[in-house]
Amino acid sequence: MHFPLTLPADKPFDAVGFGLNAVDHLIVVPEYPAFDTKMRLLDHKQSAGGQTATAMVALRRLGLKTAYAGRFGSDPEGVFGFQTMKDEDVNVEFAEIVEGAKNQVAFITIDARSGERTIVWDRDDKLAYAPEDAPAEFGALGKILHLDGHDPPACARVAQAARVSGTIVSADIDNVYAGLPELLPLIDIMIGSKEFPCRVTGIQNEREALIELKSRYGCALVGMTIGAAGAVVYHEGRFIESRAFEAPGGCRDTTGAGDAFHAGFLYGFLTGEDIETSLKFGNAVAAMKCSALGARTALPTKSALDEFLIRVNLVPKP
């Protein structure tokens, strides 16, 4: 099935992202520890992450031109996170370093048996955007503007200007934040976490919640990621499902898998694929990401993704 959207031409970037970045402190343990116990860790790592920042890195590794707008702290974590974006050749002209602010951080405990994780995070209030602070002109620079729904009034300002210019607006949202109902009608591609449709509509049945989400807010395409089961989108009265792939060599860490999925899905859209194929691309990029510790460590290049797709029989051998 084809996308119900037309990508604009003559934009400086394929995709631009306005939203979160973070620095993750990852700890791998044999099993999730019980309360009031001690356990020796198996591995640990500091790694850059954040929903939107990671998606822009993933698309850049796949060969597309990307830019990121967001706020970093002036502390060592912020310096580290900002440098990782520059090292990946993501344009950061619209990114800011906020003097005196601490960067968003997450402490992530990963169960070595499954790669599943528990996240404890914090975000300095100084990193939040008020609507008047948002770079309204930024979204129009890309064929696609990708958001994560934090600071919804600021996101709405960027999204509104982007839509006027013909830019397609995509969002990865996992929770309900203040001002979100005003942002949702400005989103064309709304693929959230498994819990999000139920949280925002109040409907407990996930598929009924997706139908209501589309009806209530008018998004062209709605869907959700469902972990090891893959992803599903709702369009033209149909649910389109795509199963997940196994991570090469086994799942080491699921941190950032959703961010990787969104990048793979948008990569399919940007390169002319249909919805079904784009879903498979999203699941493939997510599976490859899960093969190593950290949100970005194993994000694939285009050639690595092509090889993976051949191995799983998604595309024929050349």
Structural notes for this entry:
With 318 residues, this protein is α/β, with parallel strands linked by helices. The protein has a single domain (13-309), classed as 3-Layer(aba) Sandwich (UDP-N-acetylmuramoyl-L-alanine:D-glutamate ligase). 31% of the residues lie in helices and 23% in strands. The chain contains nine helices and 14 strands. The chain has helices at 51-61, 76-87, 152-164, 180-183, 196-201, 206-217, 257-270, 275-289, 302-311, and strands spanning 13-18, 22-29, 43-49, 66-69, 71-73, 96-98, 105-111, 117-122, 142-147, 168-171, 189-192, 221-225, 231-235, 238-242. Strands 4-1-9-10-11-12-13-14 form an eight-stranded mixed beta sheet, with helices on both faces. Strands 3-2-7-8 form a four-stranded mixed beta sheet. Helix 7 runs antiparallel to helix 8 (275-289). It is globular, with a radius of gyration of 19 Å. The mean pLDDT is 96.
Key attributes of the depicted protein:
alpha/beta, UDP-N-acetylmuramoyl-L-alanine:D-glutamate ligase, 8-stranded mixed β-sheet, 14 strands
Topology:
Layout: E1 13-18, E2 22-29, E3 43-49, H1 51-61, E4 66-69, E5 71-73, H2 76-87, E6 96-98, E7 105-111, E8 117-122, E9 142-147, H3 152-164, E10 168-171, H4 180-183, E11 189-192, H5 196-201, H6 206-217, E12 221-225, E13 231-235, E14 238-242, H7 257-270, H8 275-289, H9 302-311
Helix pairs in contact: 1-7, 7-8
